[in-house]
Specification:
The chain has 297 residues and is an alpha/beta fold. The protein folds into two domains: 38 residues, no CATH class; 225 residues. The chain has nine helices and eleven strands. The strands form two sheets. Strands 1-4-5-6-7-8-9-10-11 form a nine-stranded mixed beta sheet, with helices on one face. A two-stranded antiparallel sheet has the order 2-3. It is elongated and about 75 Å long. This is F-box domain-containing protein. It comes from Jaapia argillacea MUCL 33604.
Length: 297
């Protein structure tokens, strides 16, 4: 399901390919949200020749042209990687608009796989194309990866203006040729950091691959988010890093103690080094009830 916020059309549902044109109760229309400065600009244009009455029909056209650039501030989408045809409608809509008319700032993407036991090809190319289309305006991104999906290679897209990123990973599919957890960030690394404006990062993982993901984000060299200020890590008790490794990453301790956990020892990862700009670190331990999703303690 994809919700598109606009002036006239409030919601587009991709799965059912239907459009809702009626604003629900308590939803303020685009005209009501229009700032006074914009109305002043519109009336300044239509009253320039002294015949305001004859130019009033132009108000609708002016308003549509001006507001069209901010018609899609937020998008929520669920993509099933086993049936990518459902992505087509949204792609066509975005591609049909000029770059300055698809200024999506906030995006929530849920990637699922309805055929968990079937062989899965990586959705990286499709998802990367999807992100590239709005990379010039995207500031907030939440990527929720359901089990049996492949982590996309987001580092290939320079998300220059992204300021807040949430990654939720739960039992991703492994591609043997790349190794465990090497789908999101793998060598060669880009010359410039892909997330230069990123300030807030929330990593949520329920499998050992999350450790590799975290080490990729916080390499001692070539940091991917060099100016990060807020970091939140949510993971199962057994998959959290030892306290001394966090101390080393923060520069409090010079050398971590040797790893004693068999799980941690088998995960391919590099030492952590948090950026000097980091101001807040929240480590959240979770428990996983039998047959359920991890929950905060």
């Amino acid at each position: 399901m994809v919700s598109l916020v606009g002036s006239d059309s409030n919601e587009v549902v991709i799965d059912q390919i239907s459009v809702s044109t009626t604003l629900p109760p308590r939803i303020i229309s685009a005209i009501q949200r229009c700032p006074v400065e914009l109305w002043s600009r519109i009336f300044e244009i239509i009253s320039a020749d002294g015949h305001m009455g004859t130019n009033l029909p132009l108000v609708r056209r002016f308003f549509r042209e001006v507001s069209d650039t901010i018609r899609l501030p937020s998008v929520r989408a669920t993509f099933d990687v086993s049936n990518r045809t459902k992505m087509g409608s949204l792609f066509q809509m975005l591609c049909s608009r000029q770059a300055n008319r698809r200024n999506i700032q906030h995006r929530f993407l849920h990637i699922c796989n309805s055929r968990s036991r079937a062989p899965l090809t990586s959705p990286a190319a499709t998802l990367n194309t999807f992100l590239t289309i709005v990379s010039h305006s995207l500031t907030t991104l939440t990527l929720f990866m359901s089990p049996n999906t492949v982590i996309p290679r987001m580092h290939e897209i320079p998300l220059t203006y992204l300021r807040e990123l949430t990654l939720h990973i739960s039992q991703p599919q492994k591609k043997p040729e790349l190794g465990v957890g090497r789908e999101l960030l793998h060598s060669p690394l880009p010359f410039s950091p892909p997330f230069p404006s990123l300030r807030r990062l929330h990593l949520v993982y329920a499998s050992a691959e999350g450790l590799t993901l975290m080490s990729d984000f916080f390499r001692p060299t070539h940091p991917l988010a060099p100016f990060l200020t807020h970091l939140r890590i949510s993971a199962l008790w057994k998959e959290l890093l030892p306290a001394d490794e966090f101390a080393t990453a923060l520069g409090i301790q010079s050398t971590p103690e040797p790893m004693t956990s068999p799980l941690l020892a088998t995960v391919a990862r590099s030492p952590l080094r948090f950026p000097a700009t980091l101001q807040y670190l929240l480590i959240e331990a979770m428990s996983a009830p039998p047959g359920g999703c991890p929950r905060p303690l």
